[in-house]
Write a structure and sequence with these properties.
Family: Belongs to the ABC transporter superfamily.
GO biological process, one term: transmembrane transport
Pfam families: ABC_tran (PF00005)
Shape: globular
Bound molecules: adenosine-5'-triphosphate
GO molecular function: ATP binding; ATP hydrolysis activity
Distance between the termini: 41 Å
Number of strands: 10
Helix content: 40-55%
Strand order of the largest sheet: 6-7-8-3-9-10
CATH class of the largest domain: Alpha Beta
Protein name: ABC transporter ATP-binding protein
Length: 274
């Protein structure tokens, strides 16, 4: 099956004050995502993961390279084309406390993307009950405001908003990082269920390897603006080929004291070898 999204040799510098360009943030990134696939994008803070997601969504402008969606080069798509693409590409952000407009009822938050794509307001409102049901929220949530919900429930609303237009691709940028562990698992399972029923693809950005293991088919490891390793999750996490991936795995938290000891020894060995 041909890929849904392909990124080839993408470079990006943000404009900087006083200079024509700031430092290079993406340094020749190439990857692909198939229909119905989840690609986990991991890497330490500042490595460029969010920037890559923003470039895919047209929120950051690459300096060179190509982003191809369903065979169309969208690297520098016009605003008009981007508005149309919003039907197919959506985003779920990290912070469920700031990503929903506090002044709007949930029904308006969920109807908004449908109306923006030309649906009549009355018809959009009729869809709200079905969307709430898909993410496991009761129908009476429609008349309530974001402040009346927990973080996990708000993230369900954000996911309902993202799936309202039946997109083919959702960029999930640390969607569970702000949630406690048990709520994380519930929200991740919801995303997996939606993928199974709707065939949506995810570019799943996270610094958390246990989250990646839970949701991804493949994983790409980003280090200082470059992808240093890409492969099936089991291969990358069991037999990492790059030193940085090994470090990332060794830094992942574990409650098991034996594993903590093993990891301390492995970290020392890695440092000595360098
Ligand atoms: N709008 C912007 N203008 C200028 N520089 C930016 C902008 N957004 C991000 N950067 C810089 O780009 C680099 C990569 O940031 P980015 O947010 O993509 O990394 P990240 O891997 O997603 O990090 P985190 O996990 O902390 O979110 C950082 O040095 C950051 O300061």
């Amino acid at each position: 099956m041909s890929d849904l999204l392909t990124i080839e040799d993408l470079h990006l510098r943000y404009p900087a004050r006083g200079l024509r360009h700031g430092p290079e943030i993406l340094k020749g990134v190439s990857l692909s995502i198939a229909p119905g696939e989840t690609l986990g994008l991991v890497g330490e803070s500042g490595s460029g993961k969010t920037t890559l997601g923003r470039a895919v969504l047209g929120l950051a402008s690459p300096t060179s390279g190509n982003i191809t969606y369903k065979g169309e080069n969208i690297t520098h798509a016009s605003k008009k084309r981007r508005r149309a693409l919003a039907r197919e590409m959506q985003v779920v952000f990290q912070d469920p406390y700031t990503s929903l407009n506090p002044a709007l009822q949930i029904s308006d938050i969920l109807a908004e993307p449908l109306v923006a794509q030309g649906m009549k307001a009355a018809e959009a409102r009729q869809r709200v009950g079905g969307l709430l049901d898909r993410v496991g929220l009761p129908a009476n949530a429609a008349e309530r405001y974001p402040r009346e919900f927990s973080g996990g429930q708000r993230q369900r609303v954000a996911i309902a908003r993202a799936v309202a237009l039946q997109p083919r691709l959702i960029v999930c940028d640390e969607p569970v990082s702000a949630l406690d562990l048990s709520t994380q698992a519930v929200v991740l399972d919801l995303l997996i269920d939606l993928q199974r029923s709707a065939g949506v693809s995810y570019l799943f950005i996270t610094h958390d390897l246990s989250v990646v293991r839970h949701v991804s088919h493949r994983v790409a490891v980003m280090y200082r603006g470059e992808l240093v390793e890409t492969g099936p999750v089991a291969d990358v996490t069991n037999t990492p080929s790059h030193d940085y991936t090994r470090k990332l795995l060794l830094a992942a938290p574990t409650a098991d004291p034996d594993r903590q000891r093993e990891r301390r020894q492995a970290r020392r060995a890695l440092q000595t070898a360098q």
